[in-house]
Specification:
Layout (H helix, E strand, L loop, with lengths): L6 H4 L2 E9 L7 E4 L6 E8 L3 E5 L6 E5 L3 E10 L11
Antiparallel strand pairs: 1-6, 2-3, 3-4, 4-5
Length: 89
């Protein structure tokens, strides 16, 4: 058993959503569809932790902690994930 789950429960296939931080590149033109930052932006600066965007209309610039994620849906995936170094007990 792993925690309170049996191996059989861990081997079941599920549909899951994958979130990965999006790797912005300077010069990209992006559109944020919803939320307080919604609208069109140009990526004008990127560090490991920050992204700097410019509004193409007002030319105002903002620097924010990285906040966008690429989302992918996968079917038939083992869940919960067992990292490569972990062993099922």
């Amino acid at each position: 058993m792993v925690g309170k789950k049996t191996l059989r429960q861990l081997d079941m296939k599920h549909n899951i959503i994958i979130f990965r931080p999006y790797a912005f590149r300077v010069g990209q033109k992006i559109h944020i569809e919803d939320g307080s930052r919604r609208g069109d932006w140009e990526v004008i600066g990127v560090t490991e932790r920050k992204v700097k965007l410019r509004c193409p209309i007002s030319q105002r610039e903002f620097e924010w902690d990285c906040f966008c994620y690429f989302v992918e849906e996968q079917n038939g995936v083992e869940w919960p994930h067992i990292s490569k170094g972990e062993k099922k007990v």
